[in-house]
Design goal:
- With 276 residues, the chain is mainly alpha-helical.
- The chain has a domain at 54-143 and 155-253.
- It contains ten helices and two strands, in the order H-H-H-H-H-H-E-E-H-H-H-H.
- The protein has helices spanning 5-25, 32-51, 56-65, 73-93, 101-119, 124-142, 163-191, 199-219, 223-245, 252-275; strands spanning 144-148, 155-159.
- It has a two-stranded antiparallel sheet.
- The longest helix is centred in the middle third of the chain and has 29 residues, at 163-191.
């Protein structure tokens, strides 16, 4: 089957000439490598599209409540740091954008959430300083320059941060990412609820990290990135389980507090009556 050019061009761009010919023109759906590659590309693009809106419900929830109660500030700081490093590493490694594109959107949304958390805490100056620092760090890590060597024949690439150091920082994002989940998991456990956390964000994060394991195995030969996604999936699973467990528990702490205060109030009335 021959598709019109306006359909063929994006299809070839996504799955390549070989797999396009195999799957679309020859209808050869027994070619396992192309099938796996096409599934990986589809999942990857779906994750990137989902990443563009994954934290929008969380942002809306914070704005509507004018509060970030129950959301760990340190969790978002650590996660954003890991995102900035991973984004720079993938860009410098020239990995397919379908394998990391959502990191760009998640980084922007995290910065918006951090800004809102500080804004509603009355810390506008701190918000400006933190957001500026993250943008500056991303620029430093990802910036490269190409120029001709002294003999005028070889293109030399220079960077403010060496690839070896960036690779080390990418390895460091594994514990950073994991520790970014721990404060939120502990916060949920202590409160017995998930506060202003968005269920859409939590469940999509879990599904996305699970799919990322598959796309990384299929398209990227990098054990550092794969290890990060495997462990991230585990911790996102814990958060998803907490969301399910505490689904109807958002108002429990305030109810208990109210019952305690009512109890103490009646006790006070009894004592006053005795004295009279």
């Amino acid at each position: 089957m021959h598709l019109p050019y306006f359909l063929k061009a994006p299809a070839v761009a996504i799955i390549g000439d070989t797999c396009y010919t195999t799957l679309i023109e020859d209808f050869n759906y027994t070619h396992v490598p192309c099938i796996k590659y096409a599934i990986s590309k589809g999942l990857g693009l779906g994750i990137v599209a989902g990443g563009a809106i994954v934290k929008v419900p969380q942002i809306i929830k914070i704005v509507q409540a004018r509060s970030a109660k129950g959301i760990s500030f340190y969790a978002y700081m650590l996660e954003t740091l890991a995102c900035v490093i991973s984004l720079a590493y993938n860009v410098r490694s020239k990995n397919p954008i379908s394998t990391y594109g959502e990191t760009f959107f998640v980084t922007l949304q995290n910065l918006a959430i951090i800004g809102l958390m500080l804004r509603y805490s009355g810390k506008n100056t701190t918000a400006f300083m933190i957001l500026t620092s993250f943008l500056f760090l991303g620029n430093i890590l990802s910036r490269t320059a190409e120029h001709l060597s002294a003999d005028g024949t070889t293109i030399v690439q220079t960077a403010l941060v060496s690839m070896d150091l960036l690779r080390f920082l990418q390895t460091a994002t594994i514990p950073i990412n994991l520790f970014s989940k721990v404060p939120q998991i502990v916060e949920n456990y202590k409160n017995g609820s998930t506060g202003q956390l968005s269920a859409f964000t939590i469940f999509n994060y879990f599904a996305g990290s699970l799919a990322r394991v598959y796309t990384t195995l299929t398209e990227v030969d990098d054990i550092i990135i794969l290890s990060g996604f495997l462990l991230s999936t585990l911790f996102n699973c814990i958060l998803a389980l907490q969301m399910a467990l505490y689904w109807n528990s958002a108002s429990t702490p305030s109810k208990v507090k109210s019952e305690k205060s009512d109890g103490s109030s009646s006790e006070t009335k009894k004592r006053v009556k005795k004295l009279d």
